[in-house]
Task: structure prediction
Amino acid sequence: METAELQDKIFAFCEAAKGKKKLKEKDIIKGVSAELGIDGDTVKKAMRAMIDVGRLMYSYGGGASSVEIPSEEYLREKGMIK
Amino acid sequence: MKKYTTPLIDELEKGPWPSFVTEMKKAAKTNEMANDAVGHLEKCYSTKVGYWKHGGIVGVLGYGGGVIGRYSELGEEFPGVAHFHTVRINQPSAFFYTSKALREICDIWDKYGSGLTNVHGSTGDLVLLGTKTDALETIFAEYSSRGWDLGGSGSALRTPSCCVGPARCEWANYDTLDLCYSLTQEFQDELHRPMFAYKFKFKMSGCACDCVASIARADMSIIGTWKGDILVDQKEVANYASKGMDINAEIVNMCPTHCMNYDGKELKINNAECSRCMHCITRMTKALKPSGERGATICIGAKAPIVVGSLLSWVVVPFIKVEPPYTEVKDLIRKIWEWWDDNAKPRERIGEVIEMKGMRSFLEAIEVAPMPQQIREPRKDPFMFYTEEDMVAFKAKEAEEKKTGKYKF
Result:
């Protein structure tokens, strides 16, 4: 599977959980690799590339961290949208 | 700059001790954020309300930790603390700095933050208190261009921390500074990209004096120890006695395993019973010293109370060699994380998961054999592990013995 296609699947996975469950990195890696039948390392690399360019972001609340789809506010802060 | 009257927090400047209020007021003379922090603190004291919000999405791109978002509910009244984020900088092993390095850190912080610092936070990091969201990327760029990096926060590996070790201490049983640096470099991903159920802390002490209090604070305490006997210089023992030390009261009776005796002439130690607690060695530094093979004891699971009550670390590996490139320690860490990751719910520390799942399941997963040294509470920790295969083999043996008449109940 092409990386871009995999990243779209990861994005869709996160979008489906939005507002329902705070996803840890491992939840995404396990969930997507099980769904697509590919190894966890490939999913991890693709997900981290998305975090590095701001397509996904780390969030923090109540002492625990999660991975989420960035808000407009976050993207504006990072200069990714105007 | 607005001038705040602060009768309540002024009380904290009285008395003989250094006062954080005095330091905040000094910073407030030149920094708007620090000035508003002073006013905000007075307001908190007068109303007995905190007003702080914590967490959120604040951070630098690609990193999941190192910045802790803090906002005040009173942003309009105190605009300088509307955003007041904390930045954690990964400290050097055992907190060795040059004055040039400290000036560099403070100069950058004065430029982009409140100028207030906490050196060091209880995590071990060099903590910079109070900056705005839009300054974070610039602050990170400034520090990283000078070789500094952010520390850990959130559900990640927290910045590893160690005692002063062989740099200044004769009792270090391994090079705590080098191990701390090596683990920091090896686990950069785990440090900067939160992937665990909750926080995980390493703390490294060179001996059982445990100057970084790893036994009470670290999920994984790596505490130096030795295998040989305690060497006794009887002349020096006599010297301590002649100078007024009551050896029986101060040393022998304080020994937790009662493995020593002193008849007024000679100090004897039953080394087989010694738990290497360091008490006698620290009191009679000239007379006693460790000998033989050096290494560390690995303990697991200390934490402060959150989900369950506070826990002290539990011995898992009584002795491990700690030498570069530390492959054995690193492999063990990976196995520990794998088991924790498979079994923990969000916000569960590893000590809590061991309490719930049992030490048996943990030891099996990390492939460490059960040993007497792991027993925390006698008669309470069953380390007799029987697998399904053991039971089948036992039954077959029993049937065979019954057939041949050798069976004895």
